[in-house]
Amino acid sequence: MSTLPVGMGGSGIAPATIGGEIDNTGSHPGRREPLVLGMDTFGEVTRTVCRVTEAKRPPFAWYIAFGLSVSLVGLLGFCVLYLIATGVGVWGLNNPVMWAFDITNFVFWIGIGHAGTLISAILFLFRQKWRTGINRFAEAMTIFAVMCAGIFPAIHVGRVWVVYWLFPIPNQMEMWPQFRSPLLWDVFAVSTYFTVSLLFWFAGMVPDLATLRDRATTKFRQFAYGLFALGWRGSNRHWHRYERAYLLLAALSTPLVLSVHSVVSFDFATSQLPGWHTTIFPPYFVAGAIFSGFAMVVTLAVPAREMFGLKNLITLRHLDNMNKIILVTGCMVGYAYGMEFFIAWYSGALYEKFAFINRAFGQYWWAYWIMVSCNVITPQLFWFKAIRTSIPLMFILSLFVNVGMWFERYVIIVTSLANDFLPSSWDRFIPTWVDIGTMLGAFGLFFTLFLLFCRFLPMIAMAEVKAVMPQADPHFGEDHGDHDHAAKGSHA
Amino acid sequence: MSTLVTTPRESTGGSGVPGHRRVYGVIAEFETPGAILKAAEQVRLAGYRWWDCCTPFPVHGLDKAMGVKNTILPWLVFGAGATGTTVAFLLQSFTNSFDFTIWAMVWVTGYPFLISGKPLLSLPAFIPVMFELTILLAATSCFGLMFLFNGLPRHSHPLLANDRFRRVTNDRFFVVIETRDPRYRPGHTEEFLRSLGPVAVEAVEEEPCPE
Fold first, then answer.
1. Longest dimension (CA), chain A
2. What is the mean pLDDT of chain B?
3. Whole-angstrom Cα distance, residue A263 to residue A285?
4. pLDDT by residue (tens digit) across A181-204?
5. What pLDDT does A48 receive?
6. Would you state the pLDDT for residue B210?
7. Among A57, A172, A470, B202, which residue has the least CB neighbours within 10 Å?
8. Distance CA A309, CA A311 (A)
9. Cα first-last separation, chain A
10. Residue A252: is it exposed, middle or buried by C-beta count within 10 angstroms (0-12/13-18/19+)?
11. What are φ and ψ of residue B93, in 5° steps?
12. B205 neighbors B160 (Cβ within 8 angstroms)
């Protein structure tokens, strides 16, 4: 059993997925495509996933992407340092618009994270076996997105060096955080979300890290993967507790993921600003978060499966399923936009009505219509199976959704603040280069971490994929005479 | 190939002869989940106690075949979650509703924040943080206790030093019977394992003890 890669390119890919008849939309489960294509043994799954990290060097495209991303991280570092050294005045904020790019980016990144937890926890509870192909890197995406999100509230507070005031730590002023503020709920929600997602991700990865440890050919790899594999040896007595713990973590993460964006939406909904002060915000934010998160998973999965030869594990069926979720959540988001407008009129609240008409036809009309066209019209194209199963189209559409969801937060935050109750206090927000640099830098950080993850960690949950293969069923192939083990064992 | 180096625990004892280590146990290698399921059933019926099955992924039905008892982990996680709820409520009501002084590593005094005329002890506003700390404590203890009960992390293990056993994290399934099992009999246990139809049976040595 050598560790040589087997058919890096097209040879291993079953032609049925590309352009052929895809039968995974039917209601008859038996006729759906298998989750793993072109592989009959567990060993093939191991080799396919491990060769990504075991290859001498990553594909050339990886270097280009990594170089670009790291440069953006440099830009992020510079912009953040410049901000801290100078003050938040380097951003384009002004008196009515005191939140703009910073909180837009925060909400955007937190939202991106939600798809990972949805895939890992909620789909797990619903026994959706197709999640196993995509859960690992979707969870990784969650963690990196929450890291990017965490930067913004931390640096927008002004005096970054006293950011620990957010936590209930005894201090010399004998002051405590104000627990009735949604901003403080946010601190707890986001830090809990990050911690729990990280534990869930790591717990899921331990058996796969053990695989990499056991395949290691150098002392260093053996030590490094061995350190994080925690001495895992696949004992069934361990698996028993592990599976129970995994189920519990999924059950705990499910209400958590729904709560995080609800709490984020409280930052707005509990204020009295027209355009923010609405009860629809928690479910609307959660749907939008899952919508944007799945779009980001598609954006990452499409190039990653090409680059690392994982088309047999992240199949068109996985992508098709994700596009369906984008369609569903896109409809929810579209409904929320419509309902917001309806309530603005139906409530009879003058300021609310103005806020919404101003959103669509005021100074930020262009942002509003970018949002509507990207988030409401784009996902509707996924009604068509041909579009749902076309790799280039789904990639482009997922980019549209990413852009649209960034603009959704921009529209909610900036238009509401810029034109509030008193026309005399109205102003317009114009981003500075530091605003834009920090935003791009966060993307750089996200992609840098993701590329490092792809290169050094098991990108696909091998143990989980193996467990959903038909061969993993102890009764697999029993009808075909599986009783010759005694004869086989005699040479042992 | 499988070489069978079986040295009974008693015969070498102590530090032993150099190059002749004590035997930790015997492993039998199987190729399919179905095969290990049947083997596990037999090992349990034979009355072994210090034994295990090691698999690349959890095999459905193996818990029952091995007679693994349900873990108490969920109850402890529930306890941790309830602790989180309580701690969060006490933390918030102390810091935001009262002004007495307590000792919590250092002397700390509460501060009754009066915010827009809301009641000082405003439970609804405390719910989100109570929820978050419930989840945080439950999830961290779930993670920590699971590995703790499994005896992990562990730096090394006799099985991990065995070359054949390396495929356990890839595509092979192993039954392990330890020599400390009261029913372990050199030679006889290997015979028994071979009768279960494995592809190989091999003795696994203990790790060298640092002198």
1. 92
2. 84
3. 10
4. 899 999 999 999 999 999 999 999
5. 86
6. 57
7. A172
8. 6
9. 18
10. buried
11. -70, -35
12. no
User: Is A263 in Cβ contact with B113 (below 8 Å)?
Assistant: no
Percentage of chain A beyond pLDDT 70 is: 90
What are A276's two structure tokens? Answer: 């923010």
Which amino acid is present at A490? S
d(CA A460, CA B47): 39
Which helix (DSSP H) or strand (DSSP E) does residue B173 occupy?
strand B173-178
Our measurement of the distance from residue B15's CA atom to the centroid of its chain's CA atoms, rounded to an integer in Å, reads 29
Size of interface A-B (CB pairs under 8 A): 239
Cα(A434)–Cα(A446) distance, rounded to whole angstroms?
Answer: 18
State the nearest Cα–Cα gap between A390 and chain B, in angstroms. 33
Angle at which helix A236-269 crosses helix A182-215, to 10 degrees, equals: 150
Helix (H, G, I), strand (E, B) or coil at A280: coil
Alpha helices, H only, B67-201: 73-97, 123-149, 188-194
CA distances from A124 to A130, A140, A145, A328 (A): 9, 16, 21, 19
Place of tokens 């579009």: A387
| Alpha-helix residue ranges (DSSP H) falling in A347-432 | 350-361, 365-372, 378-380, 385-388, 391-410, 416-418
Give the mean pLDDT of A340-348.
Answer: 91
Provide the CATH topology of domain A11-17+37-163+176-470: Formate dehydrogenase/DMSO reductase fold (1.20.1630)
Nearest to A309 by CA among A38, A25, A2: A38
Q: Give the residue from B33, B46, B23 showing the smallest Cα distance to B193.
A: B46
Q: How far is A269 from chain B (nearest CA, A)?
A: 14
Using an 8 Å Cβ cutoff, are B36 and B160 in contact? no
- Say if residues A337 and A368 touch (Cβ distance below 8 Å): no
Domain ranges of chain A: 11-17+37-163+176-470
- A80-122 pLDDT, tens digit per residue, is 999 999 988 899 888 888 999 999 999 999 999 888 888 888 8
Q: Is A8 helix (H, G, I), strand (E, B) or coil?
A: coil
Task: List, in sequence order, every residue forming a beta bridge with B102; answer none if it has no partner.
Answer: B108
Instruction: Find the CB nearest B73 among A241, A253, A487.
Output: A241
Whether the pLDDT of residue A276 is over 80: the answer is yes
| Residue A297 banded pLDDT, cuts 50, 70, 90 | very high
A298-334: string of b/e by CB count within 10 Å (b at 16+)?
Answer: bbbbbebbebbbbbbbbbbbbbbbbbebbbbbbbbbb
Query: Are residues B139 and A199 in contact, defined by beta-carbon separation less than 8 angstroms?
Result: yes
User: Taking CB atoms and an 8 Å cutoff, what residues of chain B touch A473?
Assistant: 33, 60
Which residues of B are less than 8 Å from A258 in CB distance?
none
- Contacts with A163 (C-beta within 8 Å, 6 or more apart), sequence order: A154, A157
> Cβ neighbours of residue A444 under 8 Å, at least 6 residues apart?
A68, A69, A70, A71, A72, A73, A74, A75, A76
Contacts of A176 in chain B (CB under 8 A): 95-96, 110-111, 113
CA distance A177 to A169: 9
Tell me how close the Cα of A241 comes to any Cα of chain B, in angstroms: 6
pLDDT for A409 beyond 60: yes
Structure ipTM: 0.86
Alpha helices in B46-117 (DSSP H): 62-66, 73-97
CA angle A433, A439, A440 (to 5 degrees): 90
Query: Under 8 Å CB-to-CB from A30, ≥6 apart: which residues?
Result: none
